[in-house]
Amino acid sequence: MVTTVLPPPEEKAAAVRAMFDRIAPRYDRVNRLMTFGTDMRWRRTVAGRLAIRPGERVLDLACGTGDFLGIVQQRTTDVVGLDFSGVMLAIARKRHGATAALVQGDALQLPFADACFDAAVSGFALRNFTSLPAAFAELARVLRPGARIGLLEVDQPRSRAVRAGHGLYFNRVVPFAGGLLAGDRPAYRYLPASAAYLPPARELAAMLREAGFTAIRKQSFLLGAAQAIYAERRG
Questions:
Q1: How many domains does the structure of the chain reveal?
Q2: Which residues constitute the domain of residue 84?
């Protein structure tokens, strides 16, 4: 499935942007149905663990339609959202454009000055980047020493029984139901398959350390079906 669903490396960036542009209008509704609303609870948990304070400047990397933006704005008014997809950003702008700065750009070439953010969040975006080491290096560049990050992503449950049930839902039900609801079956075949882009936890932690992060830790959700990765920018 991976070889037929996932685009070749040289086409990934353009394919991902086009896909999110297509599914943006129905993206939030399908997400709520597919996760039974738990994705928003996970975002609130991450924002709480980062202990974001009033006045801190926070980057929402690959902000999509702005789910994380709204949650972070409950803690600080200085929030910047960046996304690759212009259509996703247009929806975020309707939701938060009056209260958050929104920028279209590439996570591998962030259009921000060095050391200008106190924290960063990202929701289910890591597997869509064409190079995780480059994305982490750029993220480290724009963060101040001691800045915190919280990255939400999918994961593989450790339990064999749970993994089997999760695999059936994630790899069969999600593509079928998501394709039916969004009218774009290829996109909802890609989204589960793209988990193949995620390296194992140790390799991911090594990439973060190499980029300049420390205090790396992981929190699991839904019996290991999702994860949050926390770290701090080394001083």
A1: 1
A2: 2-233
